[in-house]
Amino acid sequence: MRVRPVLNDDVLRVPATAVARRASLMGRVVRRLWHEFRQVLPPTIFFFVGFNFVVFTTNLLVADYSIAVSNFMLATVAALVVGKAVLVANAMPFLRRYDRAPLIRPILFKTAVYWVIVFIARLLERFVHFSVLERKPPSDFIPFLITTFSWHRFSAISLWILVLFLIFVTASEFGQLFGPGEIPRLFFTSRPSDLQLNRRQRMRELLRLSRLADIHTAAEFRDPDSAAHRDLVAIVLRLARGEHALAEQSAAGERSLGEARINSR
User: Fold this and answer.
1) Distances (CA, A) of 45 to 73, 87, 110, 168
2) Alpha helices in 62-181 (DSSP H)
C-alpha cells in the first residue's frame, strides 16, 4: 500500500487560515470598539464638564448651609450614562428623519429623543441601585417612587440635562453642517491676509452660492451667456485669492525654480 507523504504546507495551511481568520475578526472588533469610543467620547466629555459645573455652582449656592447636594463621582457617573445613551440613540434609524428639514427641527427632535432615553436610563439606574445594592424587593420600587423618591431633585437634574442636550445637539448639528474639523478651524485659525474676504463675508458668499445652486440647473451654469453663469463667476472671483497675491505667489515660485536651477549647476 502506497502512503502519501505529508508535506509541511499541508500541515501549516489550516492553522495559518485559522490564524488569519482570528486576526481579521480581532481587527473588526477593534475597529468597531474604536468607532464606538470616538462616538461616545464627545458627549461624555461635554456632560462631564457640564454636570461638574452644575454641581460646583449648586454647592456654592448652598455652602452657607454647610450641605452639599452632589459630588464629583455622581456627576461623572451621570456623564457616562448620558454618553452611553447617546451612543444607543445614534444607532436608531429614525433619528435621521429630519435631516432635510429646517435645522431647528432635527435639533429639537434629537434633543427630545436623547432626553427621553436618558430619563429612562436614569430610572433604570435607580432601579438597579434599589434592587441590587440596597437589596430591596423589586416589587417595592413603584411605591418607593411614589412615596420616598425625591422627584424635585430628579426633575431639576432632568431640566439641566435638557438644557445641556440642547446646547450639545446644536453644536453637533452645526459641526455636521460645516464638515469635520471646520468648527475648530473657524475658532482657532486665522485667515491669510491675502484673501479678499473675511470670515463673515466669505460665509455670506458661500450661502449666496448655495442659494444660486438651488434655483439653477447645471446647464444654466455652463451657458456663458446666462445670468446664472455670470453670478457664479462673480461669486467665485470674490472667494478666490486676490490677483496681487496670486502674482506674488507666481513670482515666488519662479524665483524658487531659478534658484534650484542655479544650485543644480
Assistant:
1) 14, 13, 19, 11
2) 72-90, 104-128, 141-147, 151-178
* CA–CA separation, 182 and 208 (whole Å): 19
213 with 119, same domain: the answer is no
Of 106, 118, 242, the residue nearest 176 (C-alpha): 106
Helix (H, G, I), strand (E, B) or coil at 147: helix
Query: Which amino acid type is present at position 44?
Result: T
pLDDT tens-digit series, residues 85-99:
787 777 778 888 887
Cell numbers for 80, please give them.
457616562
pLDDT at 196 over 80: no
Q: Grade residue 166 by pLDDT with cuts at 50, 70 and 90.
A: very high
With residue 190 as reference, give the H or E element that holds it.
none
- Distances from the Cα of 13 to the Cα of 3, 4, 17, 100, 146, angstroms: 20, 17, 6, 52, 66
Helix, strand, or coil (residue 250):
helix
Cα distance between residue 37 and residue 114, in whole Å: 18
Determine the average pLDDT of the residues in 33-38. 78
User: What is the model's pTM?
Assistant: 0.66
Which of 150, 168, 186 is the endpoint of a domain?
186
The cell numbers describing 123, all together, are 430610572
Q: Let me know how many helices (H) and strands (E) the chain has, helices first.
A: 10, 0
Number of folded domains in the chain?
2
pLDDT digits (tens, 9 = 90+) for 46-90: 888 888 888 888 777 766 665 555 667 777 777 887 787 787 777
- The domain in which residue 196 lies consists of 192-264
In 3D, which of 45, 81, 105 has the Cα closest to residue 157? 81
Mean pLDDT (the chain) is 76
